[in-house]
């Protein structure tokens, strides 16, 4: 199997079909888990930015099915993440507010059963390690990540399919923001659009936001993957729904009961389960799907997104830029994280949809 292959299955939303398709795509993209040994420790990294339900967060069945399959093979499985600053905030003095584990339950992603780690619960110093390499030059001082990256044998990335008010998209690369300590989260956000909202979310903490003038918001996000490149085994999307405006949460801003910038949710027909062990290939295909969905975006959601996010070039890039020219992709290729896909293996996907997606990727 070529590392740059993306495996795609069309699926209905009933649970039996989903389970079977997730299992098939997982096994195909990992060559039947040929890297897994009994008692290996595997981290599943979902998208759990908030307590909002899917598709603002990862599909619950993605977590359930992958965990069950790995456990049946004899692995020790841990699900782990740290929610965004608005919902979980930590500084040198400890957790200021929120628990990622509570969001895991509230979102519908998981239950009290099974092992879940909210990275903030491990402590500011003892729970994190520092990472820096020749591939992380956008981070002059490096960044701090959960110690679980060092402790596990394997990592499986389980993002959701969504646009993002700041980054343009939140897919496989953006999902790894959840392994950062909050001081490092502040560092990369300081280079991005709408950082005043991030500083507001950090109110009450001792965290600082200093823009280093590098304009490397997206590059910093991509370079987080350098810390997991040796242990990442696959990036798997369960996309029966997608957010095609705003994101990552169900709304861009909430003031009391007032919600501003409600994410437009699309139900995919058919739903798509797709994965690749090359993170750039997986990201490229996810971008193709989002581009295609946004072609038929209704006028009102499109207009409201344009009005509220008019100053954010990252959002414009999704619609206007070829995939291989998007910052997420060309920077990831530049630092050796992977390549654009050279093969897409489809199952139960209509020919007209296959043709459109292949065209976006220029296959």
Folded structure, characterized:
The chain has 363 residues and is α/β, with parallel strands linked by helices. The chain has one domain. The protein has helices at residues 15-29, 60-72, 100-106, 148-151, 172-175, 182-189, 195-201, 217-223, 279-295, 299-308, 313-320, 327-334, 351-361, and strands at residues 5-11, 41-46, 76-81, 89-91, 94-97, 116-118, 128-131, 143-146, 154-158, 162-164, 168-170, 232-243, 251-255, 258-262, 265-276, 343-347. Helix 8 packs across helix 12 (327-334). The longest helix is centred in the last third of the chain and has 17 residues, at 279-295. The radius of gyration is 19 Å and the shape is globular.
Can you give keywords for this protein?
363 residues; alpha/beta; eight-stranded mixed beta sheet; two-stranded antiparallel ribbon; 13 helices; globular
Fold blueprint:
Elements: E1 5-11, H1 15-29, E2 41-46, H2 60-72, E3 76-81, E4 89-91, E5 94-97, H3 100-106, E6 116-118, E7 128-131, E8 143-146, H4 148-151, E9 154-158, E10 162-164, E11 168-170, H5 172-175, H6 182-189, H7 195-201, H8 217-223, E12 232-243, E13 251-255, E14 258-262, E15 265-276, H9 279-295, H10 299-308, H11 313-320, H12 327-334, E16 343-347, H13 351-361
Parallel strand pairs: 1-16, 2-3, 2-9, 3-6, 9-12
Antiparallel strand pairs: 1-15, 4-5, 7-8, 10-11, 12-15, 13-14
Protein name: DUF362 domain-containing protein
Pfam families: DUF362
InterPro entries: DUF362 (IPR007160)
